[in-house]
C-alpha cells in the first residue's frame, strides 16, 4: 500500500503544500499528524489519496522538508 500521508513540520507548511499540489492537479487534505506508536506527533500532514509519490516529488522539488510518510490517516 502506498503511504498516503505526507508529514510536515507545521500547519503553515501543510497548507502551502496542499495548495501547490492542487495547482499541480493532485488532491490533498490537511490534517494533524496522528500519533504513530510511542512517538507523539506534533506536526501536520497532507493526506493524498492518489499519486502520493508524485506529490512528494513535487514538494521536495519546491524545497519542502518531508518528515516522513505513512499509510495511517484519520480524516
Describe the fold and architecture.
The protein has two helices and four strands; from the N terminus they run βαββαβ. By secondary structure, the chain is of the alpha+beta class. The protein has one domain (5-70). Strands 2-3-1-4 form a four-stranded antiparallel sheet, covered by helices on one side. The mean pLDDT is 88.
Strand content: 15-25%
Please list the strands of the largest sheet in the order they lie side by side: 2-3-1-4
Number of helices: 2
Helix content estimate: 25-40%
Largest sheet: 4 strands, antiparallel
Oligomer: single chain
Number of strands: 4
Number of domains: 1
N to C succession of SSEs: EHEEHE
Structural class: alpha+beta
Distance between the termini: 18 Å
Rough outline: globular
Radius of gyration: 11 Å
Task: Note poorly predicted spans.
Answer: none
User: If you average the pLDDT, what whole number results?
Assistant: 88
Layout of SSEs?
Elements: E1 5-8, H1 11-23, E2 29-32, E3 44-47, H2 52-61, E4 68-70
Antiparallel strand pairs: 1-3, 1-4, 2-3
Amino acid at each position: 500500500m502506498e503511504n498516503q500521508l505526507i508529514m510536515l513540520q507545521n500547519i503553515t507548511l501543510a497548507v502551502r503544500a496542499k495548495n501547490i499540489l492542487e495547482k499541480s492537479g493532485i488532491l490533498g487534505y490537511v490534517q494533524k499528524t496522528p500519533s504513530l506508536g510511542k512517538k507523539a506527533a506534533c506536526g501536520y500532514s497532507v493526506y493524498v489519496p492518489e499519486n502520493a509519490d508524485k506529490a512528494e516529488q513535487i514538494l521536495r522539488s519546491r524545497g519542502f522538508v518531508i518528515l516522513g510518510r505513512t499509510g495511517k490517516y484519520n480524516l
